[in-house]
Amino acid sequence: MNRTWTELEAYQPRVLKLLEKSIGKNRLAHAYLFEGKKGTGKKETALLLAKSFFCTERMDAEPCGECSSCRRINSGNHPDLHIIEPDGLSIKKHQIQSLQEEFSKKGLESSKKFYMISHADKMTTNAANSLLKFLEEPGKDTIAVLTTEQVHMILNTIQSRCQILPFSPLPSSIIRLELEKQDVIGYMAAAASQMTNNLDDAIELSRNDWFAEARAIVIKLYEALTVRKEQAMVFVHTQWMPFFSEKELQDQGLDLLLFLYKDLLSIQLGMEDAVIYIDMKETLKKEALQTGQQRITEKVLSILETKRKLHSNANPQLLMEQLVLTLQEG
Question: Residue 35: its pLDDT value, please?
Answer without folding.
Answer: 95
